[in-house]
Design brief:
Keywords: Membrane, Signal, Transmembrane, Transmembrane helix. InterPro entries: DUF6049. Pfam families: DUF6049. The protein has 745 residues and is α/β, with parallel strands linked by helices. It has 5 domains: 165 residues, Immunoglobulin-like, CATH 2.60.40.10; 336 residues, Glycoside hydrolase/deacetylase (TIM Barrel, Alpha-Beta Barrel), CATH 3.20.20; 61 residues, no CATH class; 105 residues, Immunoglobulins (Immunoglobulin-like, Sandwich); 43 residues. The protein is 30% helix and 29% strand. The chain starts with 13 loop residues before the first strand and ends with a helix.
């Protein structure tokens, strides 16, 4: 049986009736400390010991302070306990008591003994208060039974005028009869938005960040600093969901990096805080179960609905690789926590298929809005891109087991459904006292679950706060410490949560209505307008790998996956800016393979009616490429392309070129310029880059014409030679005649 009873008092209490209002019995909703300070009296409960009671005579001490912010002196105040002698029947009643801040739900009985009088409190001053109670005081007759008892601490003036009130619970859990000890799995996210835009392993100087926000988050009260504080103190059974893209970004920051700005890029020195944060995280999570999200936390539902069939599998694979490289070798990728904890059948299929033979998802962590209880009403609200649920339990129902079985094209997938109320308690409520309030509500909720009728074996409960939460370390650590000490709970890793083996037990415990994905959920996804250019970038990025001989994974895989991150759901403008930078980088890389001599004023010559024309391709990449060169005539009547034994070129990197000899035949009597189009293709036939137009100039000189011209030149040469010989002979005769004349003389 549950063994203790709990009294919670909230650290910040709301002022329900301003001092100037004399209407008795008025109650209003809770407000933050700041609001209460402007309105009047602030009731603070600073200590409750013990957290819960296991004996009817256990003395529970409650203490706190009153702060007078009314601007006037107050006198004749009484702080007293209001209670109900009957425990709450179920979680629905507990929710109603906490949510409905009206007199109708306020406990009807006032304790004559658990109260303290405060004679006067000056304006701006504070006064302490303290009283005790026992579980026996709450029951009539004084034999309390196990349960969660609603109580309220109120401040009255003049015996009737209520100035402030705070609600909470006392949990009474005697040792006998014993209750079932349920399994509690806590999943905590360490997910951020992408900050880096470009990262090319072969160009370490090209790691460019879109902003420098991570630097501020690492220290002081920054979000990542708070997450690390929680990780250091959390029990080793807590499961962490870590986005490897975050680790990747911080690793890049631990070296000199570049930040893009409006006026160009800014060089940043290595951030020592990033390196220290990573080292501390490795130590903190050394013994804890860790799940790697798909790289950059892509919007899986949106990708499924817009034809990104391969990116999800690649994201799972890359996420596992990066986590093993940057965090530790043993990191799971078989559990997926989709954006907002919501997916439909299409997204489930993509996750289950994953990358065949490499990485698949076998469990999904969902909200109860996505897989609701059959008799549970869920109202969704979306703020800053995060979907939350306001859950209305049906009176008399029991909490279903956290597991359910879904069916995908790749087989069954286990769904792990987070409890909406318990998960919400792990998120900051705002205002002083939220830690105490959340802790005591947590004790009451889990005790109520343990005491629900019909249990013979332990059930599974899953807690999962919002994926991009900004946590309060004090609150989270207090709840984890409390959960670890409750006798009706057993903390367990998330991966150990499995459906009951018996089909009958599964049917009785799950009570789920099936996957529910609304039109509003679909509207929250990344839309077609955003994803269409991203899809084109992804296509081109893949070509930069396919064109190489070895065909390694694209150097742009990580950059493209960051563009598909669910973080861009509520900030598509920033996502588009990042997409432009990635597009420019992809285009620049594709332009490193070019057809040389494609200048329109540099035509290539085809001598005669047929022959070969060289087409050269230059590779400025640092790796070898395999290129198919496709040449087509723009007008086959004027110029035909002849058959080729091979169109493939294998070209070394770093500026080397390859040349393909292309046979061409000009049409009969054709002379002048004709055009051909050259398209580079990958070895699997995909076009690489834009087609290039080349001008081919045909001379019209056939082979016979060349023979005739040659013969004519020979005849002309013979005539010239004959004439020269004749002149030489004539000059010789003239010299001989002159010689005879001289002798005669």
């Amino acid at each position: 049986m549950i063994r203790k009873a709990t009294l919670l008092a909230v650290v910040s209490a709301a002022l329900l009736v301003p001092v100037g209002v004399a209407t008795p019995g008025t109650a209003a909703a809770k407000t933050s400390t700041a609001q209460a300070s402007r309105q009047g009296l602030v009731l603070t409960v600073s200590s409750i010991t013990p957290d819960w009671a296991k004996g009817a005579a256990d003395v529970i001490k409650v203490s706190g302070t009153l702060r007078n912010d009314t601007g006037s002196d107050l006198s004749g105040l009484v702080v007293r306990l209001r209670y109900s002698s009957q425990p709450l029947p179920d979680r629905a009643a507990l929710e109603t008591f906490q949510a409905d801040q009206t007199d109708q739900t306020l406990p009807g009985q006032a304790s004559p003994t658990s109260q303290v009088a405060i004679a006067a409190v000056a304006a701006g001053a504070s006064a302490p208060w303290e009283f005790t109670l026992t579980p026996a005081q709450l029951a009539h007759p004084a034999l309390p039974r196990f349960g969660v008892y609603p109580i309220a601490i109120e401040v009255q003036q003049a015996g009737w005028r209520r100035l402030a009130v705070q609600r909470t619970f006392v949990t009474y859990a005697p040792p006998q009869p014993k209750t079932v000890r349920n399994k509690l799995a806590v999943a905590l996210p360490m997910i951020d938005q992408p900050h880096r835009v470009i990262d090319q392993p072969r160009r370490p100087d090209d790691a460019t960040f879109a902003d420098d926000k991570l630097s501020a988050a690492l220290t002081g009260k920054g979000r990542l600093a708070d997450l690390l504080r929680i990780a250091k103190a959390a029990p080793p059974s807590v499961t962490w969901f870590v986005d490897p893209a975050l680790l990747d970004d911080l690793t890049a920051m631990s070296k000199p990096y570049t930040v893009a700005g409006k006026d160009g890029t800014v060089k940043k020195p290595a951030d020592a805080a990033a390196a220290q944060w990573l080292a501390d995280l490795r130590t903190a999570l050394a013994d804890s179960p860790v799940v790697a999200t798909p790289y950059a936390d892509p919007d899986v539902a949106a990708l499924a609905h817009h034809g990104f069939d391969t990116q999800v599998g690649r994201a799972i694979e890359l996420g596992g690789q990066k986590a093993a490289q940057l965090l530790r070798p043993e990191v799971s990728t078989s559990i997926n926590w989709p954006a907002s904890g919501l997916l439909d059948a299409d997204a489930l299929d993509l996750l289950a298929v994953g990358k065949p033979g490499v990485a698949q998802v076998r469990k999904v962590l969902l909200t109860s809005a996505n897989l609701p209880q059959q008799d549970q009403q869920v109202t969704q609200t979306t703020q800053t891109g995060q979907t939350t649920q306001q859950t209305a339990f049906t009176p008399g129902t029991t909490t279903p087991d956290a597991t359910a079985t879904l069916y995908s094209v790749a087989g069954p997938v286990t769904a792990l459904v987070a409890d909406p109320v318990l998960s919400r308690l792990f998120e900051p409520g705002g205002g002083a006292g939220s830690t105490l309030l959340s802790r005591q509500r947590f004790i009451a909720e889990t005790a109520m679950i343990a005491a629900e009728p019909g249990q013979t074996t332990p059930r599974s409960i899953v807690v999962a706060p919002s994926r991009r939460w900004d946590p309060n370390p004090t609150l989270v650590n207090a709840l984890l410490k409390t959960a670890n000490g409750l006798p009706w709970l057993s903390l367990t890793p998330l991966d150990s949560v499995k459906p009951p083996k018996s089909a009958a037990v599964r049917a009785a415990r799950t009570q789920r209505a099936g996957l529910t994905y609304t039109d509003q959920d679909r509207k929250e996804e990344l839309g077609r307008k955003y994803l269409t250019p991203v899809k084109e970038i992804a296509r081109k990025a893949e070509l930069t790998s396919l064109i190489t001989t070895d065909k390694p994974p694209s150097a742009f895989d990580a950059a493209v996956l960051r563009l598909t991150s669910s973080a861009w759901r509520n900030q598509t403008r920033a996502g588009r800016a990042a997409a432009e930078l990635v597009k420019d980088a992809v285009d620049a890389r594709m332009d490193m393979i070019t057809i040389t001599g494609a200048d329109p004023d540099r035509p290539r010559t085809l001598a005669g009616s047929d022959g070969v024309v060289p087409v050269s391709v230059k590779n400025s990449l640092p790796v070898e490429v395999t290129v198919d060169v496709e040449v087509t005539s723009n007008n086959p009547k004027l110029l035909r392309i002849g058959p080729q034994p091979s169109r493939r070129l294998v070209i070394g990197g770093n500026g080397q070129s390859g040349t393909l000899q292309v046979p061409m035949t000009a049409g009969s009597g054709v002379s002048g310029d004709s055009a051909v189009t050259v398209q580079l293709r990958t070895s699997d036939g995909q076009p690489y880059g834009k087609p290039v137009k080349l001008i081919i100039r045909t001379t019209g000189y056939t082979g016979i014409a060349l023979v005739i011209v040659g013969a004519a030149l020979t005849v002309m040469l013979a005539a010239v030679v004959t004439r020269v010989l004749r002149r030489r002979s004539q000059r010789r005769l003239e010299r001989a005649a002159k010689s005879r004349e001289s002798e005669a003389t």
